[in-house]
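Lecture 7 notes: from sequence to structure.

We start with a single chain of 251 residues. Read the sequence below before looking at the structure.
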Amino acid sequence: MVEALINGLLMTLQWKTFLMMMITIPIGLILGILPGVGGKVGLAILIPFCFGWKPEMAFAFLLGMHAVVHTGSPIPAILFNTPDGPAAATCLDGYPMAQKGEAGRAMGAALASSGVGGVVGAVCMALTIPVVRPLVLAFGPPEFFMMTIVGLTFISVMSGDSLIKGLMAGGMGMVISFVGMDPQTGVVRFAFNQLYLFDGINIVTIVIGIFAMAEVIDMGIKGGSIAHTQAEDVKGLESGKELKIPLSTGN
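Now the structure, written as tokens:
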């Protein structure tokens, strides 16, 4: 396993392979910024370009795009309060910071945490694969049921003081998840004879419909800028005050 890891790293560091990875990084960032697109659509777009390529070049071409999709997704969540999958939690702190004129600080924190988390997560995953593999294969219906229960218990944490609203939102989410064909019995539920609903409702469609459309309508009605207040340094520059920078006198 260690030998295969070293060989894969050497193939990745070849200039042709590394160049293919660098080319698709901006594409992945753009796809991450666009709500509702994401990495799956990017893979569907880029896979036809990889036909006939060497495996290592094709993997680097697709990996460069897919690895940075989640790095770009916090940007619309911070600026427009429009989450896209994993960036939903960024709206809780990022958008209020943008309203205070600290959008740059919020995006810097999100990009830094995404970069550090990606590198640390990749290293931890590579080191724990031999240990976690038997555990993952042992997961069955009881374990998935307990994971669902744990996910529902997070409602009480995210709801804060509005527990009733959180329970209503959780119940609505469960009702939406019931739409479509049951994977165990094959029974179609709540589809109303609509072929589009046989596969269920896409979570991205729900998120964009609930958050993005409401935010766009609210911004269109209020008008003006996103930031309601300005950061302290911007206030100082606009009022004509000089920013005093202490100079260190080292030996």
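The CA atoms of residues 49 and 58 lie 9 Å apart. Keep this in mind for problem set 3.
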